[in-house]
Amino acid sequence: MTIFDENLILETINMIKLYNFDIRTVTLAVSLRDCMSEDVNIVCDKIKYKLEKYASNLVSYARDIENDYSIPIVNKRISLTPISLIGESCKVKDYVKIAKTLDDCAKNLGIDFIGGYSALVEKGFTQGDKALIDSIPEALAVTERLCSSVNVATSKAGINMDAVLKMAETIKDSAKLTADKDGIGAAKLVVFCNSVGDNPFMAGAYCGYGEPECALNIGVSGPGVVRAAIQDLDIKADLGVLSNKIKQTAYKITGTGELIGRKLAKKLNVPFGVIDLSLAPTPAIGDSVAQIFQAMGLEHAGAHGTTAALAMLNDAVKKGGIMASSYVGGLSGAFIPVSEDAGMIEAAKNKYLTFDKLEAMTCVCSVGLDMIAIPGDTPSSTIAGMIADEMAIGMINKKTTAVRIIPAPNKNVGDRIVYGGLLGEAPIMEVNKLSSENFVSRGGRIPAPIHSLNN
């Protein structure tokens, strides 16, 4: 007779029902390298066939797994080979047509988001890269589920400052073309340093060049579970005990996520890829990374000590998760998106968090300046300076960093943007008024740091 651990069963139920534990995303990575053609219409037809072949059952099978295990799978997504590569062979580089095709495929398949409208330009541009980047504002304005990313820096190549300035202008244009929706185009566009090709989280997910034909990548999330675990500790428990508790919790979350991922991959008859351990918050009450800081003992996110708390949280999550899976990948750690975290939204509204404090926190978190709303009249050169700063943090520290900034059209400090759902809402944050123009306009490439010469 099987003996069940009643406490373990109750703990799992509480993780789901009380503390917002879920599988944040199942992301099917699909290579489109065999979809190239000189005719853009043939490219679009090949993409439709390929996505129908591999992703036609993704949503229905994910729902079956949800029902079997009673664990929510919040988003079903697809990531693709960077589209700059796929469209480059076309005589007429109609990237917007490809974008519409991808969006239509996502709608027909019931997919929440489709990523990979991307380019990798850390050392310079090809003709396809330039054409894709030029098309991004229109592509994001005429689609609903498409996400875009551009990698402009790596620790090996340095920072392509021409690309940084170009992306600042692209972010501004993307927001302007979706002004009737609070600039949501910019919310679906991210600029990276050291981007990774197995990331399951949007807006930066794409299928890297070295990835297999198809693979299923999983993103788990459990800020509420971690917060509850910390609150169960004695208030006087020291930081070593607290860190160990986070590791134990991350181990449980990761093991559950890998179980779901492997079951779904088997049903789809595709390889299991990686599990991304990132604590990805939502605007739901109790599902907040910022509230973990409060459980640790800080009055609120933004207090002195927040960066240290985030560093410990990020490290403990990775240490715990890596013991539960041999295939940890993606970004893995803790996200701090302002608009997608109830605690971060509150901290920004009350001005506990400033832009500069958020930048400092990105030195130790998973990604970077994420879902931050700024005045719509912020100059492109200032946004380029923000991107350059964040790229420098990633380049020097050999980590992935990113910028997802929303220059909210016709809005200023004191206003807010509202998207609803996982994208949430955010107050418009004040930015430094000093000019960056003469610096960012120099162009060229900031050389890679000395530690890049490590062969």
Structure description:
By secondary structure, this protein is of the alpha/beta class. The chain has a domain at 29-193: Anaerobic Ribonucleotide-triphosphate Reductase Large Chain. It is 43% helix and 18% strand. It has 16 helices and 13 strands. It has helices spanning 6-17, 40-55, 58-69, 83-87, 95-109, 127-141, 161-177, 184-187, 223-231, 239-268, 289-296, 306-322, 342-349, 355-361, 380-397, 437-440, and strands at residues 22-30, 73-80, 113-120, 146-154, 158-160, 189-193, 214-221, 272-276, 369-375, 401-408, 416-420, 424-427, 445-446. Strands 1, 2, 3, 4, 5, 6, 7, 8, 9, 10 and 13 form an eleven-stranded mixed β-sheet that branches. A two-stranded antiparallel sheet has the order 11-12. Strand 4 and strand 5 (158-160) form a beta hairpin. Helix 5 (95-109) packs across helix 6, helix 7 (161-177) packs across helix 15 and helix 9 runs parallel beside helix 11 (289-296). The protein is globular. The protein starts with 5 loop residues before the first helix and ends in a 9-residue tail after the last strand. Residues 1-6 have low confidence and may be disordered.
